[in-house]
């Protein structure tokens, strides 16, 4: 039975259940108009909350904007209750949009506010359920269960039947995912009994849908069909349409498994009609993924319809999923060019999601840090003010003047010290941010993108009938080898650089002849040089020695030769030799190429973290870390490194090393 296709959609839809608020279109128009003209902040704050409730299911981006504006206002006014509520709403909206890390920060902040000062048990239970949903969506089922059990205890203590029902539903869902079918069924039946008492019909419909899935997993198709029919009996108004679609899909699957294709198709068509009416892209996507119910030539139009809706609603996660499904359909049709195009589009969307999420998480963490600092400062100022008032009431006028003078002087000295510490802290933070940004950039682009490309190529090769000749296969294998080697080189540099940031660089200097190391690197680059028809010439005298760490010298030579080959044109020349040096205690080496050169504005910061790597003359990729490490290694050995270049006329890199200890 094809239940696995629908389980994520059917089950975790239930985890999102929350108290339902209803506003008419006329009311919301009045609310949004009054926000812009409201003179009292407390009135405006109440209107913001109403607008968030209305838009969070209809237009999430609009709800998010109102929630952020409301949160800023509540923080300004010091209204902790509204601050906690709006932070929780933002967390829920972030989770719906797939920004899981940011959602967790928002929800935990809201929970802390409620637990620390507000002590609203019902709100605390709701937030624990939200955190459980967040963990469940990420596959952390044990942590999700812990959060749900904690919420259940709160609702039981409050005798909140609706809260107990919805928490039972979530626990049933998690156990279904963990294949604890008996425990899942027990939670569902317990929730159903309570829902019937309070006449919570929409939850009853969702519960029958879950119970049908549970029975379907066991192979009890007749019982599963009965549960679907019971659930559909409640779906007689438009607000039941979402659960109605789920029940119709699962009913169709049951009939399909029983061999009743006509009935199965009728249910699928009815579900498709409702999904189209409500512009629900994830429902259209699931219908399109049916193996037999949807004819193969109808899948692409249906998927593209879902794609258009998801693009219109800016639902990037669903857009990426649809691109991948379309790619898989084209692979089945042996249209590999189209499959590759859609797979590449899916990778690009997921890269955008990753970048936006990380930037948003960092920005939010910084904002929370600044907020905590400002609150702490306010508390300090309040305490100082109390002391000042006390002294003014008990001391004579002259004593007050003296005390104030001393206080101001002390404050002035302390401020100077704090400013110095703050400046040093900002410099350290700026450097840490540069390190973090560089790592995220390399992981997110230079490692993630080639990995996706490799996986895509392997999937094509793994298909039984990929339609490629031996020559085409050899070309693909060559591309795979190049991508893998480039990724490995990037990872090695990243690990070496990361180790440098954490542990520092160990230094083991000795006196050695440099030519053995240079010749070793010439052999290492020999194959690449032949491939680009480039000569590498060693003009370093045979007797040349330096006092340095041999591994550091080896890395610098290897990296500079690699750069020379990378940016040299075919049939060119790369040369390593000694340059004249006015300081007799140092040996000055140069590595010279006749390639594309470096723009005048780029030479000043080419050895810094902010520099970005350019493609070589044969589209070779890099990370920008090589020259950073070269600078570190040369300077640690007491030398200097610099570059001279003119765009279009090649580049010459110079570095110095000590002759002796």
Automatic annotation (TrEMBL):
Q: What are the record keywords, sorted?
A: Kinase, Phosphoprotein, Signal, TPR repeat, Transferase, Two-component regulatory system
Q: Which GO terms describe its molecular function?
A: phosphorelay sensor kinase activity
Stated EC number for the protein is: 2.7.13.3
**Pfam families, per the entry:** HATPase_c
> Residues of the signal sequence?
1-24
- InterPro entries in UniProt: HATPase_C_sf, HATPase_dom, His_kinase_dom, HisK_dim/P_dom, HisK_dim/P_sf, Sensor_HK_Regulatory, Sig_transdc_His_kin-like_C, TPR-like_helical_dom_sf
Q: Which Gene3D superfamilies match?
A: 1.10.287.130, Histidine kinase-like ATPase, C-terminal domain, Tetratricopeptide repeat domain
Q: What class of enzyme is it?
A: transferase
Catalytic activity from the UniProt record: ATP + protein L-histidine = ADP + protein N-phospho-L-histidine
The family database entries (SMART domains) matched by this protein are listed as: HATPase_c, TPR
Domain Histidine kinase positions: 442-661
Q: Describe where the TPR repeats fall, as residue ranges on this chain.
A: 245-278
What's the name of the protein? Answer: histidine kinase
What is the species of this protein?
Flavipsychrobacter stenotrophus
Taxonomic lineage from the root: Bacteria, Pseudomonadati, Bacteroidota, Chitinophagia, Chitinophagales
